[in-house]
Amino acid sequence: MRHVLRRAGRGAIAAVTVAGLLAGLSGCGGSTLDISGKHRAPEDAIRVLPEHGAQNIPPEGPLEVRLPSGRLERVRVSRIENESPAPVPGDISEDGLRWTPEAGTRLALAAKYSVDVVALDGHGRRSARHTTFTTEVPAHRFIGYFKPENRAVVGTGMIVSFDFNRKITDRAAVERGITVTSDPPVEIAGHWFGADRLDFRPQRFWEPGTEVTVRLRLRDVEAAPGAYGIQHKTVSFTVGRSQISTVDATAKTMEVRRDGGLLATLPVTAGAPKSTTYNGKMVISDMQDVTRMDGRTVGFTKADGRGEYDIKDVPHAIRLTESGTFLHGNYWATPDIFGRDNISHGCIGLRDEKGGSGDAPAGWFYDRSLIGDVVEVVNSTDQVVEPDNGLSGWNLTWERWKDGSALR
């Protein structure tokens, strides 16, 4: 969170996705979206309960999505970071203004849920919203929410990351309760970022085809006085092909390399001089067909309280940092901007069409990307991204990474 405050607005987008098909909130900036600022819809028209980031929600809710006018087009509520993720069943009302879960639905305890909504207003303009919330954890228990998902196919830069719902005081006990192994075998080490986040990675990027297994044996492990774990599960994921893309902020190009060979060199627009893009290695952590970007969510706010931008339909949005750096499609800039000028609020823009086009550079790149792929920015005037801002731990040397283990 401190990165969000420090980097307010650096290309931030508040993201929303529904199984890769729905829209979201993001921001070269934030959490809802319309980049041109034209035809601004009512603020926060899509109402979601629980609110974004809510914790300790009871199994019976509340859980609903509402619109004051227009029509809900798609709603998906899903439990995430689970061995067998499944959507929460529910229905949109006949008037299109409300989604509610099926009668008798109870949420799981100690679980994290995402809500992804796409809606049309009275003029047929599409907007999206993405929120998350967590349910109650039994008293005196702790849980780790982790990525990637079970059985996922990821890029070679994927980092296994745990966020705990409580501050961990006995980090060694918790780290001993999590085992990450691979086939073929490589050395894998943990690194703590503060008292509630633990990441795992090998010395170098994973080899394509590697099978990674994560075993959680945290049940009854005491992480803090009186706080015991409840998780006992095994998950796995597969490393796909290698794709590493290098963005040169000065040349305003992005070279996309697949398994060492050059696939394409694409013209981009990066951060403007007053809102530059981070240098360093960043890992794709989320992908959204369409998302909303609102400058207010990352500190780009006008004197009247409105965001410097609010784009409700940013296409092909790929998250690179938690503080809001995205690589995304841009349809509002003239085509000659790409490869010539850096004009963004810190994001990396690729030419696109309104609604998103698979033939445009942004759509081409999106269709060839995986969560876990690496995007490295060079020759920007900004600092190197902090290793805990998203999955950016590759910016630490191996020795510094291992120094962050409680078992060192």
TrEMBL record:
> Which is a GO BP term held by this UniProt record?
peptidoglycan-protein cross-linking
Q: Which UniProt keywords apply?
A: Acyltransferase, Cell membrane, Cell shape, Cell wall biogenesis/degradation, Lipoprotein, Membrane, Palmitate, Peptidoglycan synthesis, Signal, Transferase
Pathway(s) of this molecule: Cell wall biogenesis; peptidoglycan biosynthesis; Glycan biosynthesis
Task: Indicate the segments annotated as coiled coil, or none if absent.
Answer: none
Active-site residues, record numbering mapped to chain: H328 (proton donor/acceptor), C347 (nucleophile)
Q: Which InterPro entries would you find in this protein's record?
A: Big_10, LD-transpeptidase, LD_TPept_cat_dom, Transpep_catalytic_dom
Q: Which GO terms describe its molecular function?
A: acyltransferase activity; peptidoglycan L,D-transpeptidase activity
Can you tell which superkingdom this protein's organism belongs to? Bacteria
Q: Does the keyword Cell membrane apply?
A: yes
Pfam families of this UniProt entry? Big_10 (PF17964), YkuD (PF03734)
Q: Which GO terms describe its cellular component?
A: extracellular region
Question: Could you confirm whether the keyword Cell membrane appears in this record?
Answer: yes
All residue ranges annotated as the L,D-TPase catalytic domain in the record: 243-378
The protein's name: Lipoprotein
